[in-house]
Amino acid sequence: MADGRDWRPRVDADVRIAIDGFNLAMPHGTGVATYGRALGDAITGLGARLDGVFGIPVGANPDLREILFYEAMGRGIPDDPGLPAVRAVRQWFARYRRAKVFDVPTRGLIVQDMLERRLPQFDRIMSSARLFERADRYFVRTGRFLTIRVANPPDIMHWTYPVPIRMLGTRNVYTLHDLVPLKLPYATLDRKRLYYRMIQAIVRDADHVCTVSESSRGDVIAQFGIAGDRITNTYQSVSTTQPRDDRLGDITAVFGLKPKGYFLYYGAIEPKKNVGRLIEAYLGSQVAAQSAKLAGGGNAIAAGLGDYERLRMQQEFLSKRYDAASAAFEAARQQAVRQQLYVVRIVDANMPVRSEYPKRALSLLTLFIALMVLYGLGWLVAAGVREHAS
């Protein structure tokens, strides 16, 4: 505020709130990882203590947990060791064991400069080996959420992504960023039945649900019938430590853009991002500073959109040609198989003139010789017994 006071509300310093590290542990991060970092910064900014729950294998040795945790954060979670058959057996036995959650001591021995921007400032870090993969398998098999137990649980466990896990002894809050897998089923690779069942369970059992836009909030209410007071729109946010004036100066110097004179889109070009609607909104906003870039000039966005549409149509045309060629190839292959695999009857089946098997004379001779050998052995044994008796 103008008087220099901190406008943010404060909470009791004894309040502990945990967030999951499902997306934070990904080496390249996602939009949900950005959301998790912003949420963690908001929690610490309110004065509460922040805990983290990860799915990194840290082992049972307390002296190695911090090292193994940050190794996985920097290089990615290692693959499960062992042959595929051994891993399958290990996973089968793991069904009947409770998920163990270990505390990762933070003794300050690890140089964290490379990871400073990826992780919020945690007061406590907990980890259970491959927690999220195990929970996913458990949900597929049973249709129930995996329950984890920790010593001294936090006051709130905030899952930043729809995961089939709940923590015992605390309030479980879930963030549903959107329902894209259900509204645009052709645009994602999610398993739609499992995703639908998981969202149903979250809406039914969660202590509270968060989302990041009014549109997503309306979608969840309309499709799953959750009460309005059980779902809150917190809006998407981002945190930064760079002073605002410095950022404005950098943007103006590098790109020549003035404050409130442009829109910024940052993300992948994919169907679910709805980039076309964003461009329509940009055009409808009538931002004078950028109208020239949209409509005219060699670097105009309109010219770029024309090239994009041309490339998209070319891609669709080539895709159809590929499908047609693939279908023709498959038909030709099946025809070739049909021509190669055939049976021709040479002669009709009839009674043999002379049987070749069995060879009766040879069989009788073999049996006679075998019996004579057995008789000889028996006679020798009997003779030996009589001689010994006399």
From TrEMBL:
InterPro entries: Glyco_trans_4-like_N (IPR028098). Residues 137-235 form the Glycosyltransferase subfamily 4-like N-terminal domain. Keywords: Membrane, Transferase, Transmembrane, Transmembrane helix. One of its GO terms (biological process) is lipopolysaccharide biosynthetic process. GO terms for molecular function: glycosyltransferase activity. Pfam families: Glyco_transf_4. The chain crosses the membrane at residues 361-382. PANTHER family: GLYCOSYLTRANSFERASE WBBK-RELATED. This is Glycosyltransferase subfamily 4-like N-terminal domain-containing protein.
